[in-house]
């Protein structure tokens, strides 16, 4: 298995690029997050098209060419020490065929984001680089916990996360160690069958999602099964599943961990022997604890649950 490269810890005053690789954002949505970067002792550097808007069936943060220009600048500029996505949405799939890593390979940097950014993180991992599956800048204005961001900054400083969880009725017991892959389920699903898909063999898979009908959730999980993913992975971590199904009919619609979505996933994986953790606080939820995609995880699932990088 290829050794995964972790970027260097950031020093005070380091420059963090803020870019919009997918959906459009307004200045008011990023003010708090950008100020937070400054307050932590770093210098935010805004991408040229951070606030650009381009409507083409969806409100993108610029044309494909404009978004490609910004992400390649952020990846390869030698003065940039980390890259923080403003938001997800849709659009990262437009970029991955055009990413350039010439200077990035000489100066690897953390890429931070989640949701649609799963696509970029899968690409980086295929090239051998770890990234941070954590809050975007925009969500800082939506009441996300301060700790969700503090833990990202801890990783930027060189600290590795360690989490203790409460047991969950759907957990499957066992102790394993392996490289973490995954992110947003819809994007994992969208990359299946392409050369940009994660390598699942002997990995621990993390999934989370938002706003899916239950049949669509089942379809994605079923597709993972048909693709042989569950025969390859060593373990599964299930994060946030929120705003699922019909808002009028689902009593758990606003919950971070939808009970029916969890049961649906649990039923599908019941015949497999790998250990599984349900209820991990990462995803489209207000308490979003960052994970390192490509990081080696020691996962213990018993009466107590521990996930340590």
Explain the overall architecture.
The protein is α/β, with parallel strands linked by helices and 309 residues long. Helices cover 26% and strands 23% of the residues. The chain has 8 helices and 15 strands. The protein has a 7-stranded mixed beta sheet. A 6-stranded mixed beta sheet has the order 2-1-5-6-7-13, sandwiched between helices. Helix 6 packs parallel to helix 8. The chain is globular, with a radius of gyration of 18 Å.
Question: Which properties best describe this structure?
Answer:
309 residues; 7-stranded mixed β-sheet; single chain; alpha/beta; 8 helices; globular
Protein topology:
Elements (H helix, E strand, L loop, with lengths): L14 E5 L7 H13 L3 E4 L7 E2 L3 E2 L3 H13 L3 E6 L24 E4 L4 H9 L4 E3 L12 H11 L5 E4 L8 E11 H7 L12 E7 L3 H13 L2 H4 L2 E8 L16 H11 L6 E3 L12 E3 L2 E6 L3 E4 L1
Pick out the low-confidence regions: none
The SSE order reads EHEEEHEEHEHEEHEHHEHEEEE
DSSP summary: helix tally = 8
- Strand coverage percent: 15-25%
The major sheet is characterized as: 7 strands, mixed
What does this entry show, briefly?
This protein is α/β, with parallel strands linked by helices and 309 residues long.
């Amino acid at each position: 298995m290829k050794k995964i490269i972790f970027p260097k810890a950031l020093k005070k005053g380091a420059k963090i690029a803020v870019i919009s690789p997918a959906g459009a954002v307004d200045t008011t949505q990023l003010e708090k997050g950008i100020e937070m970067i400054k307050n932590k002792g770093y210098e935010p550097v805004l991408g040229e098209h951070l606030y650009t808007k381009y409507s083409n069936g969806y409100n993108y943060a610029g044309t494909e060419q404009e978004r490609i220009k910004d992400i390649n600048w952020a990846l390869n500029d030698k003065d940039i020490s980390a890259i923080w996505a403003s938001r997800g949405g849709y659009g990262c799939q437009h970029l991955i065929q055009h990413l350039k890593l010439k200077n990035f390979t000489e100066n690897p940097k953390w890429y931070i984001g989640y949701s649609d950014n799963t696509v970029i993180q899968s690409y980086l991992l295929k090239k051998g680089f770890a990234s941070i599956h954590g809050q975007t800048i925009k969500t800082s204005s939506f009441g996300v916990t301060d700790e969700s961001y503090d833990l990202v900054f801890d990783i930027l400083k060189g600290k590795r996360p360690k989490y203790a969880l409460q047991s969950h009725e759907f957990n499957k017991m066992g102790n394993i160690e392996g490289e973490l892959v995954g992110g947003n389920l819809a994007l994992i699903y969208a990359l299946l069958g392409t050369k940009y898909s994660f390598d699942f063999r002997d990995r621990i898979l993390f999934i989370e999602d938002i706003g899916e009908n239950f049949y669509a959730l089942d379809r994605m999980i079923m597709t993972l099964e048909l693709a042989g993913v569950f025969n390859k992975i060593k373990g599964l971590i299930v994060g946030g599943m929120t705003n699922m199904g019909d808002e009028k009919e689902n009593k758990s619609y606003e919950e971070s961990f939808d009970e029916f979505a969890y049961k649906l996933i649990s039923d599908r994986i019941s015949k497999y022997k790998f250990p599984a953790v349900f209820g991990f606080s990462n995803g489209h939820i207000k308490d979003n604890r960052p994970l390192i995609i490509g990081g080696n995880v020691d996962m213990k699932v018993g009466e107590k649950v521990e996930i340590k990088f």
